[in-house]
Specification:
single chain; 481 residues; mainly alpha; 19 helices; 2 strands; 73% helix
């Protein structure tokens, strides 16, 4: 046959027939036997006969629990609460060690060195009290939680559990007009919202991915955990006996994080029926088999690709934040610093929201990094109340080792239980940090949606804190009368 001639179907069948009879031995019988053997093996794994005991299948046994309508959500909540608890508890010691090294050892050396070389006070204040301190707080607060949370989260991903989470939450996201895979990016947002925004790449639909990006802010990131834990401990935990304080404080923080999940569904529903209307795309989810995680590779990948990457972005934005905070606290116009004047301007709005001017200014100054909110609040409160004997003095960020001393400063600044509760709410709902906003712009390529991602949470945060404040004051007024 000429090589240029094409083989017809008759030629192929004739060749197959010839080769069949030329084959040595009983190859046809052995081929059929192998097919039936495989079919019998598969059937034995899948079929249980009446006269046989049920076969144990580990994957199916786990799936019956983690995807159960009864046990699926409690187990999911318990597992992620455990991860958060490990992250929070495990990060405390290394955070204190890093903070002690950067603030108690390096900071005095830098100040002494600047004084020794005759550096002007304004320049040393700008570089050391401003840029260095803000960066030190970001590193000490962000690095340990991310170094713990991201590997744990990736281990769940490698093990095969996260697709089960998406399976459990898929119907809720579908009702909200969003995509089931948004569950995975939301969970990643509990470590860092910037990483959660990047994780939305797994969603193919541009409309549904945009919904996931905008609502990822409602996942309580590690930069906001310290604020939540501190306020819950010194204000809510003190309302109950000492042996219950830890439990009540932890439950209040968990309640805030669950509120964030509810807001994710609510805002997704709103967006899918207003600005981002469209059909919900189909979600074909294949549950992979469970497999042992590759621990060393997971740790390496999590630390390099996620922890270091996100931390570097936070540091880049923390440096100018430190400059802004120091300048506002140390540059005076007349007899008052810029920060004091801004506090006086923002106070009426803050009090209307159940907050105060110090908190609002702290969140404005700390847009680059949520981790520096509490040190900034303490610095501004000391400045506003004239308690210059506390901490490191006016115009310098600091954090007190004693929770009682922190409570004393805050109550001196007029804080009440309402202030604490509304701060926890505002910390959950307020605008994303600059790292996350930059990531949103890089992922969407749109200033419009970046601005929406910033302003929508602010408006919602103002509305919620205002409502809580008015209801609180109404109830307190009724009780007093």
């Amino acid at each position: 046959m000429d090589e240029k001639d094409e083989l017809t179907s008759d030629d192929i069948l004739e060749t197959a027939k010839t080769l069949r009879w030329e084959s040595v031995g009983n190859i046809h019988e052995r081929l059929v036997e192998a097919i039936y053997t495989d079919a019998a093996r598969i059937a034995d794994r899948a079929v249980t006969r009446p006269d046989e005991e049920p076969r144990f299948d580990l994957d199916r046994t786990i799936d019956r629990l983690v995807t159960s309508r009864i046990w699926g959500f409690p187990l999911m909540l318990l597992l992620f609460t455990l991860i958060f608890w490990i992250t929070i508890s495990g990060a405390n010691v290394p955070s204190k060690i890093i903070a002690s090294f950067l603030l108690d050892k390096i900071y005095p050396v830098l100040k002494t060195g600047a004084l020794g070389i005759g550096m002007p006070l304004w320049l040393s204040g700008l570089l050391i009290d401003g840029m260095y301190l803000s960066t030190a707080w970001v590193v000490s607060v962000m690095l340990p939680p991310m170094a713990i949370f991201f590997p744990l989260f990736t281990l769940l991903e490698d093990f095969g559990y996260l697709p089960r989470v998406a399976f459990n939450l898929d119907k809720f996201f579908k009702r909200a007009g969003a995509h089931g895979k948004q569950a995975l990016s939301m969970m990643m947002g509990f470590g860092c919202n910037a990483a959660g925004v990047i994780a939305t790449r797994i969603i193919d639909s541009p409309r549904e991915r945009l919904i996931a990006i905008i609502t990822n802010n409602f996942a309580l990131c590690n930069g906001r955990w310290p604020t939540q834990i501190l306020i819950a401990t010194i204000f809510i935990g003190t309302l109950v006996p000492a042996h219950l304080a830890g439990l009540i404080s932890a439950l209040s923080v968990v309640a805030i994080s669950l509120l964030g999940v509810f807001l994710t569904f609510a805002v997704s529903w709103f967006l899918s029926r207003t600005w981002l209307r469209g059909e919900v795309s189909t979600f074909s989810l294949e549950l992979p088999p469970y497999r042992p995680p590759r621990i060393l590779q997971t740790i390496y990948t999590s630390l390099i690709d996620r922890t270091i990457f996100v931390l570097w972005r936070a540091i880049v934005f923390a440096l100018p934040a430190g400059v802004l905070i120091w300048l506002s606290a140390n540059v005076h116009i007349g007899e008052q610093s810029i920060a004091e004047q801004l506090i006086n301007i923002l106070d009426p709005v803050g009090l209307l929201l159940g907050l105060n001017g110090v908190i609002l200014l702290a969140y404005i100054l700390a847009i680059p990094a949520n981790e520096i909110v509490i040190p900034t609040v303490l610095m501004l409160t000391v400045m506003a109340t004239g308690l210059h004997g506390m901490g490191s003095g006016a115009g310098v960020m600091f954090e007190l080792e004693s929770e009682a001393a922190t409570l004393s400063i805050l109550t001196s600044g007029g804080w009440t239980l309402l202030t604490a509760i509304n701060l926890m709410l505002f910390s959950l709902i307020h605008n994303p940090c600059s790292t996350t906003l930059f990531t949103i712009y890089k992922e969407t390529g749109s200033w419009k949606w970046t601005v929406v991602s910033a302003l929508l949470p602010i408006g919602l945060g103002f509305a919620m804190t205002f409502t809580v404040a008015q209801v609180w004051r109404l109830i307190v007024g009724m009780i007093r009368t």
